[in-house]
Amino acid sequence: MKNEFQRLGDYHREDIDVALRSGSLEMELGPFSMRLEGREADIVDFLFDAYRDAPVRLKLGDVTDVAINVRPPNIIRKYIRRQVIADPGFIVPAVPLPPYLSPLAFEMGLNLAIALKCCRFTTFHSAVVGNERGAILISAHSGGGKSTLASALMVEGYRLFSDEFGLLDMETGMLHPYPRPVSLKEKSIDIVREFTGEKWLTKTFGGTPKGDIAYRRVRPSDIQLSKTPMAAKLILFPVFQEDTPPSVRELSKSETIMKLIPSSTNYHLLGTASFEALIKMVAGAQTFEITYGNTQDSLEITRDLAAKAGL
Amino acid sequence: MSAGPYSEQTTWTADISKMLLQPSESVTIAFHKISGDTHILNFLSAATLKILAKGDENFATAFPKILDEIQMTEHDCPASLVKRTILELDELGLVIPVETKA
Questions:
Q1: In this predicted model, what pLDDT tens digit does every residue of A101-130 receive, in sequence order?
Q2: Residue A27 to residue A178: CA distance in whole angstroms
Q3: The complex's ipTM?
Q4: In what order do the strands lie in the sheet with A85-87?
Q5: Which of A133, A258, A281, B79 has the most C-beta neighbours closer than 10 Å?
Q6: What is d(CA A83, CA A98) in angstroms, rounded to the nearest whole number?
Q7: Is B37 in CB contact (< 8 Å) with chain A?
Q8: Which one-letter DSSP state was computed for residue B18?
Q9: CATH label, A121-308, candidates 3.10.620, 1.10.150, 3.40.50, 3.30.110
Q10: Nearest CB to A252; choose among B25, B33, B36
Q11: Contact (CB, 8 A) for A124 and A166
């Protein structure tokens, strides 16, 4: 049998389980190949639930961009009061989690691996969606509403680039997709369920360090277009303030740049090329800070701004 | 503030080959290749960098050249403001003292 990438959901569960245990499962999304390893049945369940449309193969083809191993933190916690951590191959502080939260460890570990080891792109902590005319980069602190807004824009017809990363190509100044499940926390789970429908959400993981977490699945079309980068046409900095009337403030290019830099994990590391790409991206985009009190307001503002930006 | 000791006779220089300067609207975005830091410079800071990149100057000799560059008078831009700007640029590492005379 040829070692080609196939849709994960088309494999037998046993095959995925064996490949995952042996550390030979390779997934390819956007510009990254990922070597996945783990022994927890919960991860296999999660992969078939949240990554069913992702291309994988059972044997490694080459060196991968990142590797993630969800394993016990030590030999004792392998057997007694079992725990898991995500090991990305380098030392990072990680809170051990119970096995039923191994999918969460897996997701957080992958995020860390990309954020700290990806040097092909300047990475910004942001959500990105787009259409055939361009991309919208949404930059906010955790809890700022970027995942909820990105999910709402997916329903509007935008394709998902990423829920966590703006991947800026340093040569072209374009944003690359990396479509992984959208992480939803606490109240946003019910908000997204309401406009997306139950079938697009995974089960809810309770008792996590961040409260309740569920994931909005990626659509097959998002994955099919995951190698098609787009230029940013609109950059948004959403600010959620409960029961606040919606408002919009246009930002200067320089203010936009100074707001984006702190959200990057590798801007300083990559230096000149990173600066030039950032200048290029911001020059081609309209940039706004939007303040809103509910998702409907943020969606209406974004619709309006996107139309003005030619999206 | 400055990064270190200085006097009125200290001469200052700026090596703009170690910077990327991008004018943007009313400001200049400066990327410092040595530190990897990005700064937003107002018109006075940008003009100060430009003058100190052309040649070493102390506060007194830089002042009229900077006024000429920004086309302002001493009344609008007093010497103390230019001095403070040079010291702030020093603190950021964008200008450095060349020589301090006792």
A1: 999 999 999 999 999 888 999 999 999 999
A2: 12
A3: 0.88
A4: A6-7, A55-57, A25-29, A32-38, A66-71, A85-87
A5: A281
A6: 5
A7: yes
A8: G
A9: 3.40.50
A10: B25
A11: yes
